[in-house]
Amino acid sequence: MASHLRERLGSLNALEVAGKLTLTATTVLNLMPLGTDEEDEPGQSVDRAFWAEKSSPNAMTMLDGLHLLVQKETDDSSLLLKYNKAYVGLSRHGVADNFITFRPRKTGHVLTDFRARTGR
After folding, report:
1. HEC string for 2-20
2. What sign does the dihedral 26-31-32-36 (CA atoms) show?
């Protein structure tokens, strides 16, 4: 498997289906390194120091602030940060509850993924 996704400015393909012309366009915007299978394995626990080294002090400060905001908005102080190799998630009473995940970056940003759920 290639270690990088090749950058393409775009491709346009035409296909005739049932007498009608169908166009498909593909554009890749960035050159992005692909992770290894090991990096993508879920549940590989690490500690806060792993993320402090992988990201920046500003990103870690933002992560702490977002964590406090989630605790406040959910009115649940039992939600704790759970550090995994691929992301920082949440746990409640020692059980993963990743309705939101965080990925602190060297740039000082924190990427977040939210999963909406209904009810409790």
Report:
1. CCECCCCCCEEEEEEECCE
2. positive
